[in-house]
Amino acid sequence: MFRMSVKKLALCLIAGAAIASPQAQAETLKIAVASSFAKTANNLAAAFQAYYVDYGLSYSVSVSVDSAANLKDAIIAGASSPTFDLFLSSSKKEPHDLAYDYPSLVVGTPFKYAKDFLALYSKSVNIHAGLPYTLDTDFVIPDPTTDIYGAAAAEVLSSHPWYISASTIPGGHVFTAPNANSSYIAVNFGVYAYGFVPNSAICYKGDDGVKTYPAGSYHHVYRPNDEDHPSDKLLMKGIKIARARTAGEETALSNFIAFLTGVADSNGNTTTIGTGIIESACFKSF
């Protein structure tokens, strides 16, 4: 499976580090990551570090996780002393807000790196066909006023046959969690019988392209082009943060973005390891 191939690659590259040049310069990157992409971001960071050992480059990637909205606020609040090099949001909103409202805090324009999907998930109730037409069980969605997954869930709920207005959420059998990750946790620990979560939180895709979900669980994926229950695309974007960087740090940042998006790096090399990790979590890469 893909996880094993990455592990084997990492072990080989780490072994190669023992004979790499002792003068290799260590460069550190600090990345702000939305919670729905946290696990994948940490896997990317580890694989990125291992990959560049073979080129005599020592990279260290520090990942800080929070909601996209909180990370955007932290970037604005820390304008006088920037902490991060890169912001990977769970939506396009926050990077665009920074680019257009606070252009001095960022470098360049937002770029696409992944797309996720909205899923209804349960560990005990068969909801393979989707949300029941008659709502008689409490369920949870991420807060639609602050979370892109919650906003997508609210769009689904506003369609036939429920016609639930966003202004009435939470209410009735619809409860809210602070963000997508906490919605997943609430369902996973049985606080609610089912709820809307990121598909990436419950899905794994192997090298054979087969997607698997937790044994004994139930799910239904709502796609943006669903004729009956459409919702906005869960497009995820990133943006460079303006921060004093050495030439080596700037190269490291460019190489990480190349690794993330599958384009040529500073050496002219291209790898699909990064996009493969993204795809293995059932995101769509770009």
What is the assembly state of the chains in this entry?
Answer: single chain
Report the β-strand fraction as a percent range.
15-25%
Q: What Rg do the Cα atoms give? A: 20 Å
CATH hierarchy, class of the largest domain: Alpha Beta
Query: Per the principal axes of the C-alpha atoms, what is the gross shape?
Result: globular
What is the CATH superfamily of the largest domain?
Answer: Periplasmic binding protein-like II
Describe the largest sheet.
6 strands, mixed
Average pLDDT for all residues:
92
Describe this protein's structure.
With 286 residues, the protein is an alpha/beta fold. The protein folds into two domains: 2-115 and 235-285, D-Maltodextrin-Binding Protein, domain 2; 118-222, D-Maltodextrin-Binding Protein, domain 2 (3-Layer(aba) Sandwich). The protein is built from eight helices and 13 strands. The strands form four sheets. The chain has a six-stranded mixed β-sheet with strand order 2-1-3-12-4-13. α1 packs across α2 and α2 packs antiparallel against α8. The longest helix has 16 residues, at 2-17. It is globular, with a radius of gyration of 20 Å.
Features:
single chain; 286 residues; alpha/beta; D-Maltodextrin-Binding Protein, domain 2; 2 domains; 6-stranded mixed beta sheet; 3-stranded antiparallel beta sheet; 8 helices
Quick description:
The chain has helices at residues 2-17, 38-53, 68-77, 93-101, 148-157, 180-188, 247-261, 273-280; strands at 26-34, 58-66, 86-88, 106-116, 118-122, 139-142, 174-177, 194-198, 204-205, 211-212, 218-222, 234-241, 284-285. With 286 residues, it is α/β, with parallel strands linked by helices.
